Amino acid sequence: MKKIILSAIAVCAFGFANAQDKGGTGLASGNIVLSGDVAYLSQSTGDAKSSGMTLSPGLGYMMSDNLMILGSVGI
C-alpha cells in the first residue's frame, strides 16, 4: 500500500514539475496563490505501531514578481 501511495505522489510531482510558464505571464504582483502539503507517517517498534497524517493548506499573496508572503496551517 505504501508503494502505491508513494508512486501516485511521485507521478503527481513529476506532472507538476514541468508546469513552468515560458511565456513570461506567470505569477506577478497582486496574484493570490493556493498551496498545500500532505504527509503520512507510519512507524512500528516491536509490538507498538503508530501512524499519523498531516494536512497543511496555505494561501499566499505575491508582493512583487519575486516576493511572496505565504501563510499555512498544519492540521
Question: How would you portray this structure in words?
Answer:
This protein is of the alpha+beta class and 75 residues long. Helix content is 21%, strand content 49%. It contains one helix and three strands. It has a three-stranded antiparallel β-sheet with strand order 1-2-3, with no helix packed on it. A hairpin with a 2-residue loop joins strand 1 (32-45) and strand 2 (48-64). The longest helix is centred in the first third of the chain and has 16 residues, at 2-17. The model has no long low-confidence stretch (mean pLDDT 83).
Name the features.
single chain, 75 residues, alpha+beta, 3-stranded antiparallel β-sheet, 3 strands, 21% helix, 49% strand, elongated
User: Please, what is the oligomeric state?
Assistant: single chain
Proportion in β-strands: over 45%
Give the overall silhouette.
Answer: elongated
Taken in chain order, the helices and strands follow as HEEE
Mean pLDDT: 83
- Tally of strands: 3
Q: Please describe the biggest sheet, giving its number of strands, its sense, and whether it closes into a barrel.
A: 3 strands, antiparallel
How far is it from the N-terminal to the C-terminal residue, by CA?
A: 23 Å
- Class computed from helices, strands and strand pairing: alpha+beta
How many helices does DSSP assign? 1
Q: Spans with pLDDT under 50 lasting ≥5 residues?
A: none
Side-by-side strand order of the widest sheet: 1-2-3
Give the helix proportion (percent range).
10-25%
Q: Give me the Rg, rounded.
A: 17 Å
